[in-house]
Design brief:
Low-confidence stretches: none
Structural class: mainly beta
Order of helices and strands: EEEEEEEEEEE
Radius of gyration: 16 Å
Largest sheet: 6 strands, antiparallel
Shape: elongated
Number of strands: 11
Length: 135
């Protein structure tokens, strides 16, 4: 079997799923939880190339922001600002949000006091491309 080459992951983004039920108001930099806790440990270096979300119910007031995290630090791009929508996405330019092998990738949210989508369930996908080398 031949080794995987550097170009193997090109164009093959992977979605890392996290979320929160009952998105309450007045949250600040709260880490979202997925099936691996508050982030996924990356076996290879790579970069975040996008973020998308879905809410099962729309808010009619207030604001929710969502940003991907690298080792618990929120990135400024990509980033979502949600008011009354139920789905959307944002993309980052290549090279904007790079991470090293072993980094934990996740997402965090902030809601203002006016956010009234408090019964909504939020699903977030952080889209990454990993540079697969050495296997």
């Amino acid at each position: 079997m031949s080794p995987i080459e550097l170009g193997t992951s090109k164009g093959q983004p992977v979605a890392l799923a996290v979320g929160q039920a009952n998105v309450s108001a007045s949250q600040s930099d709260v880490q979202l939880v997925g099936n691996q806790g508050d982030g996924y440990t990356m076996p290879w270096a790579g970069e975040i190339v996008g973020i998308s979300y879905g809410l099962n119910a729309a808010a009619s007031a207030g604001q929710l922001t969502v940003g991907p995290t690298i080792d618990g630090t929120e990135q400024t791009d990509p980033k979502l600002t949600i008011t009354t929508g139920t789905s959307g996405y944002d993309l980052a330019a290549r090279g904007t949000a790079r991470f090293a092998a072993g980094a934990r990738i996740g997402a965090e949210i902030t809601t203002n006091s006016g956010w009234n989508g408090t019964t909504a369930e939020l699903d977030v996908a952080v889209w990454v491309i990993q540079t697969i080398e050495g296997i």
